[in-house]
Each structure stands twice: as C-alpha cells, then as structure tokens.
Amino acid sequence: MALEIYLFRHGIESQPPDPPGLSAQGVARVRRQARGLAWMGVRFDLVLAGNDPVSRDTATALADGLLPRPPVVDSPAFGPEGNAEDALKELWDAKSDIRIAAVGCEPIVGIVASRLIGARHPFSFKKAAACCIDIEPGDPCGRLRWFLPPKILREMGRLA
Q1: Which domain holds residue 145?
Q2: Exposed, middle or buried: residue 79 (CB in 10 Å: 0-12, 13-18, 19+)?
Q3: 42/131 Cα distance (integer angstroms)
Q4: How many CB atoms lie within 10 A of CB 157?
Q5: Would you give the DSSP letter of residue 76?
Q6: Domains in the chain: how many in total?
Q7: Dihedral through CA 135, CA 146, CA 122, CA 49, nearest 10?
Q8: pTM
Q9: Which residue stretches of the chain are H helix?
Q10: How many CB atoms lie within 10 A of CB 25?
C-alpha cells in the first residue's frame, strides 16, 4: 500500500502584542480548510507539526477538523530551525501504509515536496497551502496527486 504524505505550510501568524501562534483569521481559515479536506475524503493517521507555535496551531486546527482526529506530534525537523534532510528522513522512516500530514515552515516544506517527487526546484507554498504526494513501496520518487492554494481549500470547506 502507498504512503500518503500531505504537506502544509503553516497559516497566518499572529502579530505582537498577541501571543505567538495562528492569528484569529488564521485559525478560522485553517478550520475551513480542514472542512474542505474532510469533504474531499482526506484522513490522516498522524500529523507532524513543526516545533514553532504557528505550525503547532495549524496542525491542531487541521487535526480537530477531521474524524477520526489524528494525533499531533512535534517534529523539530519541520520547524524554523529544522532542515529538509531530517524532515525527509522522518517521512521515509514511516510505515508504508499510513497517511501522514506534516505542517511546517518554508522553505522546508517546499524542499521536501520537491525531493519527494524528484523535482529540481523547491515548491513555493503560500501560507496554508497544501499538497498530497503518494509513494509506492520501493519507488524512489512519489507522485504528486494535488497541490492546492489555500483559497481553493477554503472554498471546498464552504461546500462541506
């Protein structure tokens, strides 16, 4: 069975004097995106979250919008101090029959996405953009199933 990897850039962060994390607008938008993902039939077995507040908040909002709710696990590799090599290792070490979502910062998510499909240049993720990549066991590269900007995901959330 294929490994399904969903990569997300974190949503809109709050600005001082608010505490670090997603802004109120960012929370509302990510929740609507989660409804859109649920409408598409997307399910996660695990959500990896960068170890920064905005990535964790984004991952939590995504997980809260899906049934059954997947566990959210901190992953420093996807955080602002992380790196693509560690993030790729974490994904490659996963079992082959699960659906993993990873939420993190640019440029890490863009580099990871491009390397998973064998592309030369990193993807450019807008805030809260997402992609889905399938990897068959034994294949060195995955297949990009979809890459959607946040506005499209939110519009699908309105259909739900």
Answers
A1: 3-159
A2: buried
A3: 12
A4: 21
A5: G
A6: 1
A7: -70
A8: 0.96
A9: 24-39, 53-64, 84-92, 108-117, 150-159
A10: 11
Of the chain, the end-to-end C-alpha distance in Å amounts to 28
Residue 143: which pLDDT band, with cuts at 50, 70 and 90? very high
- Amino acid, res. 6: Y
What are the beta bridge partners of residue 132? Answer: 6, 146
Longest dimension (CA), the chain: 49
Strands 130-135 and 3-9: antiparallel
Q: What CATH number does the domain containing 151 carry?
A: 3.40.50.1240
How does DSSP classify residue 121?
S
- pLDDT digits over 93-113, tens only? 877 789 999 999 999 999 999
| Two structure tokens written together for 156 | 């699908």
Q: What is the pLDDT of residue 45?
A: 96
CA 14/CA 23 separation, integer angstroms: 4
* Residues 56 and 20: beta-carbon distance below 8 Å: no
Describe the strand order of the beta sheet including 3-9 as a list of residue ranges.
72-74, 46-49, 99-104, 3-9, 130-135, 143-148
CA 92 to chain centre: 16
Contact 61, 27 (CB under 8 A): yes
